[in-house]
Amino acid sequence: MRGSEFDEFSFFAAVESSGARALLIGRRAMVVLGLPVLTADYDFWVHSDDIEKLNTAAQAFDLEPNRTPKDARRNGRYVLENDEHVDVLVSATRTTVDGLEVVFDDLWSRRVSVEIGTAKLFIPSVDDLILTKRIGGRPKDAEDIRLLQRLKEVLE
Length: 156
Prior knowledge:
The chain is an alpha+beta fold. It has helices at 8-18, 26-32, 51-59, 69-75, 104-109, 126-136, 139-155, and strands at 22-25, 42-46, 64-65, 77-81, 85-89, 93-95, 101-103, 112-116, 119-123. It has one domain (8-155): Beta Polymerase, domain 2.
């Protein structure tokens, strides 16, 4: 099987030009911040009204959604994939393992713009990225939170 010729910078540029309110989250956002973590996939949290915009941007990279927009809205998530894998959250809110509500619109209002190549990419603020890590509650999320808190100390 021949892999796709996926270009991350071009993908980010396509997401930006789509107009989708999409935040890169997860470990790939940590990589953007310069943290030494490994990841093989992409994680985005997109406004539920913008699923179609994101899907259109992904078509140029042969990334196929595993759910219709209607099903994605109902399930709160879906995947864009070929030999690349993009997890997409679409719910308006998520809840952390300790019961704190995390609201997409709040994260979007505090987003950070990062230049990646010729594209502008949006990620949550460091505090909000920590909140998104508290949603999963996995051991690797705890380690990621530790790294993010250390980065926050260095930046202050």
